[in-house]
Amino acid sequence: MGDLQYFIGPVSFVAAAFVVRELFIRYVRDARVCPIWSDTLNTLMDADAEVGCYGITTKIGNVKVWTANWPFAYGHEATDGDYAMPNYATQKRLRDYIARKRAIKMFDELKAPHA
C-alpha cells in the first residue's frame, strides 16, 4: 500500500500542475489578447500565406511574427513597441501552420535535383 501512495502522489501533483498551467494560459493570459491581431493571423493562415523563418521570428505574408517563448510570447507582432497577442487557439493554429509549412519546404528541397 505504501508503494501505491508514493506513486499516486507525484502523478496527482503533475496533473494539478498541468491544470493550473492550462487555467493560466486560457484565462489569465487570454485576458490580454487582441482579437484584431488574432483575426489578422487567422486571415493570413486561411489565405495560405508564405512563411519565411528568421531565427526567433517568422514572416507570414508581409507580417513579422515572434515565434519563440511558447506559449507566453508566441505569435505577437515582432515590433519594438507595444505588441498585440493572439488568443491561445490562434497560437496553437499558428504553431501547427508554421511547422507544416517548414516541413513542406524541407520536403521540396530534398526532392529537388541536386546541382
Q: Which band does the percent of strand residues land in? A: 5-15%
The main pleated sheet reads as: 3 strands, antiparallel
The overall strand count is: 3
How would you state the average pLDDT, rounded? 80
Number of helices: 3
Molecular shape: globular
What's the N-to-C terminus distance? 67 Å
Order of helices and strands: HHEEEH
What is the domain tally? 2
Physical arrangement of strands within the biggest beta sheet: 1-2-3
Taking Cα atoms only, what radius of gyration do you get, to the nearest Å? 19 Å
Could you say which structural class the secondary elements and strand pairing correspond to? mainly alpha
Which bin fits the share of residues in helices? 40-55%
Which consecutive residue ranges, at least 5 long each, have pLDDT under 50? Answer: none
Provide structural commentary:
Helix 2 packs parallel to helix 3. The N and C termini lie far apart (67 Å). The chain is globular and about 50 Å long. Strands 1-2-3 form a 3-stranded antiparallel sheet. The protein is mainly alpha-helical. The longest helix is centred in the first third of the chain and has 27 residues. 55% of the residues lie in helices and 10% in strands. The chain has 2 domains: 32 residues; 82 residues, no CATH class. The model has no long low-confidence stretch (mean pLDDT 80).
